[in-house]
Design goal:
Blueprint lengths: L7 H13 L8 E7 L11 E6 L5 E2 L4 E4 L5 E3 L3 E2 L4 E6 L12 E3 L9 E5 L5 E6 L15 E3 L12 E3 L33 E10 L2 E10 L3 E9 L7 E2 L5 E2 L8 E7 L7 E10 L2 E14 L11 E4 L7 E7 L6 E8 L5 E10 L2 E7 L12 E8 L4 E9 L2
Parallel strand pairs: 7-8
Antiparallel strand pairs: 1-2, 1-11, 2-7, 3-6, 4-5, 4-9, 9-10, 11-12, 13-14, 14-18, 15-16, 15-17, 15-19, 19-20, 21-22, 22-25, 23-24, 23-26, 26-27
Length: 396
């Protein structure tokens, strides 16, 4: 039986596709702080804060921040700066006396909890905070806000949130009392010691060679990177970087890097190692990741249309694909892979005639168990090649 593991080049192709597509990606902007309890001056003086995780400013025109029960429902407008904040104050700008709001909204948050969703102009869910069973943090007694520990943590997990510590605060309420929160400032519970995290390591190809891409969620204590390559998983490995790739500035927010390998030869498979170097000892690999990369021969990959709706989805999505005339009578497989290249679901494996096809994925693996939320790839395969790759996002 054919293995369900695919080369990382498939994932690279899918990522490139979405870089060309319009719209935001999940967690580009997140709900970072919620003062559902109001302030000491007035319990109805609620406010919320968004944070931009990206390196570019984002236009929020057409975006919406709303509770699934319809109250509140805020049509956003304006721009949120790169790695910056967007402050929403209820009813009037005087809710936070000394910090101008970016937008005023109406309607109160429920003290018993809300399920909030942030959607972009296309209706895609960019972030969600599901506190429908009760707020994860914050205090009505001390009027302390609910703060996200890190803007890349899952907003619908209680462990991602904490209550303002009463020491690190920012701003005054309408009565000139210090606010037990951090509007437009780093959260008091922010984890400055966030472990070094490599959240993404993938490859894209061109006729010129292989480009490695990686994203760091935090670089605290990191000096730089080395890239190594081998034709075999167990080595030996050659160091491709004559000098370390230096970080530009230590950061506790996500940053992306690339490395271009122009010595790769079409048709070969490669293994890459990414060494993360600590400042205190640049000879130590503080993190090690293996990536299998199979470079396709030029012209091997056919163009085949594939799409799904809705995307993002929960729990089910419909996948449409079309088989061209030149592939009439071929055996075609429709497979779902996760970010690690593991096959989680085989949706179809049969002889196909030319024409349009529709299959449904219920967000489950081959054993009928629901897969976690995250990014998945629908891959159309023939016996000898990958025909198309499509990226999908399963939400909570």
């Amino acid at each position: 039986m054919q293995s369900c593991r695919i080369g990382i080049w498939i994932l690279g192709m899918a990522v490139m596709h979405f870089q060309w597509a319009s719209g935001a990606n999940p967690k580009d902007v997140v709900i970072n702080e919620i003062a559902w309890m109001g302030t000491k001056a007035d319990e109805s003086d609620e406010w919320m804060e968004l944070y931009n995780n990206t390196d570019v400013a984002i236009n929020l025109n057409g975006w919406r921040l709303a509770s699934v029960d319809g109250t509140p429902s805020i049509s956003l407008s304006g721009t949120i700066p790169a790695h910056g904040y967007f402050l929403l104050e209820r009813t009037a700008d005087a809710t936070i006396l000394d910090i101008p709001s970016d937008q005023i909204y109406t309607k109160a948050l429920n003290d018993e909890g809300e399920r909030l969703q942030l959607k972009d102009a296309s209706g895609q869910i960019i972030d969600e905070v599901n506190c429908s069973s009760g707020w994860f943090a914050g205090s009505k007694t001390t009027r302390s806000s609910m703060e996200r520990l890190h803007p890349l943590l899952d907003g619908s997990h209680a462990s991602s949130w904490g209550t303002n510590n009463g020491v690190t605060r920012n701003g005054l309420d309408a009565g000139s009392n210090p606010i037990n929160g951090t509007p437009k400032a780093r959260n008091s519970v922010f984890d400055i010691g966030l472990p070094v995290t490599l959240s993404n390591f993938y490859a894209s190809t061109s006729s010129e060679g292989i480009t490695l891409h990686w994203q760091m969620e935090s670089e605290v204590g990191i000096f730089g990177f080395h890239v190594l390559r081998s034709s075999f998983e167990n080595g030996p490995y050659d160091t491709l970087t004559s000098f370390p790739i230096l970080i530009q500035k230590q950061a506790s927010f996500p940053k992306s890097y690339t490395f271009f390998d122009r010595t790769a030869e079409p048709g070969n498979g490669y293994w890459y190692k990414l060494f993360l170097l600590r400042e205190e000892n640049s000879d130590t690999a503080c993190f090690l990741l293996y990536v299998q990369f199979a470079l396709p021969e030029i012209g091997k990959i056919s163009q085949l249309s594939i799409s799904n709706f809705p995307n993002p989805f929960n729990p089910m999505t419909s996948i449409a694909y079309a088989i061209p005339e030149e592939m009439h009578g071929e055996r075609i497989r429709v497979m779902i892979y996760d970010l690690l290249g593991k096959c989680v679901k085989r949706l179809a494996d049969q002889i196909h005639s030319a024409g349009e096809y529709f299959v449904q994925w219920k967000g489950e693996d081959d054993q009928g168990v629901a897969v976690p939320s995250g990014i998945y790839f629908c891959v159309i395969e023939s016996e000898n090649q990958v025909l198309a790759v499509h990226r999908m996002t399963k939400m909570h």
